[in-house]
Amino acid sequence: MTIVNAIIIGAIGSVVGAFLLLALQNFYFGWVSFPGIRKIIRASKEFSKSGGINFFSSRKSYMKFKDHGSPTDYLMRCEASIIYVGFWLAHGTNTGNVIETLANLLENKKKVTIVLLDPNSQLIYYMSDYLRVDLVEMNNKINYTLTELADMYNNLSSSAKEKLTVKLHDTPITASAFLLDNERENSGRTLVDFKLYNRSRDESFGMEFGKSGNELYDRITNSYIDIAQKANLYNISKHKIVS
Fold first, then answer.
1. Of 10, 33, 49, which residue constitutes the final position of a domain?
2. Taking the complete model, does pTM exceed 0.90, yes or no?
3. Is there a single domain that holds both residue 115 and residue 185?
């Protein structure tokens, strides 16, 4: 190879290298070919910094994530306690054997608190419209879950019964939530499932947040704890259909 050829090849290599470096720079900062990549990176960092663990674009997405799986798989991650605050526990009773899973957790000395929408509240009329569910059907769904919980309760051991709390709330919410181990120092997780007006439950979307000292996790989790604390205690041992 002549000196001239070597110089030419070296020059070409430098040009190609410079071009690749510029392309990578443009890719990262989103200046030319990928104008949105910088925003995506920033949003991802912000979500993670706020304690974000998972984002689910639809209800079907839950099953696709190995970190979530079925409702049963998710609840089995519980180490000490579970709090559900929502409407009628639709995320579980219709898509997985959640009642049996809750019973197993209770028998294994885990605390379980279930907070459902009060079917006697005036709020049920508004939520029926918001969730696009017939008023009678919504009432039946809540009572069905209460009946399932009562049947579960009757088959629990005495010690497990003491770990179960069932409440009814009348707080206007548009998202249900599972709170796992919120009293633990660093292992708490909160999964929020957002319902959209006049859309089916399958069109809801979810976000999951982890504890680890994240302020957004605290705000979300404490908000649902407030709802649970002010909800009315339901005597599941004397369950009667609520009309």
1. 49
2. no
3. yes
